[in-house]
Amino acid sequence: KAGVTQTPRYLIKTRGQQVTLSCSPISGHRSVSWYQQTPGQGLQFLFEYFSETQRNKGNFPGRFSGRQFSNSRSEMNVSTLELGDSALYLCASSMELGELFFGEGSRLTVL
Amino acid sequence: QKEVEQNSGPLSVPEGAIASLNCTYSDRGSQSFFWYRQYSGKSPELIMFIYSNGDKEDGRFTAQLNKASQYVSLLIRDSQPSDSATYLCAVNISGGSYIPTFGRGTSLIVHP
Question: How many CB pairs below 8 A link A and B?
Answer without folding.
Answer: 49
